[in-house]
Amino acid sequence: MGPYLQQVKTELILLIWEQLRKHCDSFSLLSFAEDLRLWRDTLVETTDAACHEAMQWVTQLCAQGSTSILQALQKAFSFHNVEGLYLLTDGKPDTSCSLILSEVRRLTEKSNVKMHTISLNGSGRAAADFLRNLATLTGGRYHCPVDEDTLLKIHGLLTKGFVDERDPLLPLFEGDDLRKLAQEITKARSFLWKAQSFSHKIVTHWEALHQALPGTPCLVPSAW
């Protein structure tokens, strides 16, 4: 995670203040590498003081060694009244993926905890499939970051709209959220194309009718 650590710290601090402070009653943080480090060993009420302490803890994070996901998940599931988990990682775990999935399946039998997984880089197909399966198993979502050019394309579509159903083309997204968004954009393009086609047929029909019967009023719909 070394190359991404500073960015992760910045985003986590924003998350603490913009999301946890405003929308969560309680939270905790833990990091996992060669060993497991906990900010608090229980869920803590989301107050300004707690968020400040969590922010300071985040700034001291370091990344080295293995990826001990299993131990981290076992501890996270042990928190009393935990409702959701967010797992951020940049690679395949050092434990068997099937073993982790089996353990999470066992843990979720006792509690209805959703786990959302975030891949911090293009860590390979095996790691991506593992994180997606982990999220799916618990009813959560898998997120995979995309490059800035793709984000600009998406932003343009959402703010400016589009005229041609084929432009711009979006890639096949790995993450669940962007994949769902791309599916909705594809539907919107299809509806737009059908509406434009229908409008063209109406205009053509009225123009032909007006030419055949010169005295007939020509009510042409507005252009799309």
From TrEMBL:
InterPro entries: VWF_A (IPR002035), vWFA_dom_sf (IPR036465). It holds the Pfam family VWA_3. Gene3D superfamilies: von Willebrand factor, type A domain (3.40.50.410). Residues 10-144 form the VWFA domain. It comes from the Eukaryota. This is von Willebrand factor A domain-containing protein 3A-like.
